[in-house]
Each structure stands twice: as structure tokens, then as C-alpha cells.
Amino acid sequence: MPQLPSVTPALFKGRHFDRLLITQSVRWYITYKLSYRDVCEMLAGRGVSVAHTTVMRWVQHYVPVFEKRWMKYARPTGSSWRVDETYIRVKGKWTYLYRAVDKQGQTVDFLLSEKRDMAAAKRFFIKAIKNNESPAKITLDGYEASHRAVSELKAEGVLLESVEVRTSKYLNNLVEQDHRRVKQRYYPMLGFKRFSNAAVTLSGIELAQKIRKGQFDTSSISHAGAMVPQVWGAVLAA
Predict the structure, then answer these.
(1) How far is 129 from 3, CA to CA, in rounded Å?
(2) What's the mean per-residue pLDDT of the chain?
(3) What DSSP character marks residue 13?
């Protein structure tokens, strides 16, 4: 069996702990229903003593780096988007996680916002269009601000006039069900203390969900039957 490339040391220059241990800790945290202290206990079982604040710093520092590496291998998403928002508690207050999936349930994009208004909806759509091809159809709920955002983006030329906009509770069940995967991982955290930390952590959770959904094609850098840590190592080394 061919050897896969390992995590590049350059990403971890100056770190006291082994790069594979850091990668594994971040992967565990964003993938499973674990607290920072849970990760520390799992590492302690392997003879490694790490403070939970250290794991937190690893997550906050490396999630954006890891996400950027994985996105090189992202498969294209569909052109029919289901868009909805869900609630995330930050500093004891509700914030809004804008999310979209295509009709196959593949994650299109996401954006955490402190407000639920037209400006936030526009930021989400601009981000989603930048990271994906422009949609042919957009299904929304009845919230007026999202509809106004789409209308303005059409007027500004960001969205094509031909984009079909629909309101359908039935069709949007798909994205509402998909929210649950993210929120089930979020619930053990009991909310966030900082908005910036919440945004990074949720990006990591979304990344883990996309990996589970098979939204990345790593066939060019890994082989069939490769274990999860091997695939992660190959992606980060590429």
C-alpha cells in the first residue's frame, strides 16, 4: 500500500506538542460531541497532559488553516439552494447562523451574524456566491428581509435576474433537518463566550459535517481504504 504524505511541519512551526497530536485534537473536537476537557482526558489516557485552554487555542488557530486546505478538494455543490437561519447562543444572547444546502443536502455555505436582517442576508449570499457557482434557484422561508436581500443583489448584478426565488416550508425541511447535525454538536458547548470564537468553532463543525457528507474529492492525494487520520495528513501536507 502506498504511503500517504504526512502533515507538513511548517504549519506547526514553534509548537511544543507534536503536529499529529494537535491535528487529532482539533479533529476530535470539531467532529464529536466533546468539550475541551473531554479532549484533554482522552489525551491523558494516551499519556499526554494538556490544558483545556491549550486545546481551545489549537482549535481557534488551526480551524481556519485546516478549512483552507480542505477547500482545495471541495466538490461543486448543486444550483438549487435551500436557505434558512438557526439560532446560536453567544454571551447569553441569540445570534443567527445563516446556512444553505443544495437539493441533495450538501452544504453550500454558512455565516454567523449578530443580527438577522437584510444586511446579514446579503453578506451571506455574497459569501456563498463567492465560494460556489451562482444558484439557479433559491428557496427561502417567509422572512421578508431575506427576500429583499435577494432582490437587491439582483438589482446590483450579484445575482442573475433569472434566478428563481421560491417560498416553500416543505422544500426547506431539508435545510432545517440539516441544522440539527450542527446544533447537536453545538449543544454540549453550552453556548459561546465570544462571537469570534463561536464563528471559528462553527466553521470547524461545518467542515467536519462536509467531510462526513463526502463533499471533498481527495482521490488525487489518497488511496481507497485510507484511514481518516491518513487522509487528514495528506490534505494538510498538500
Answers:
(1) 37
(2) 91
(3) T
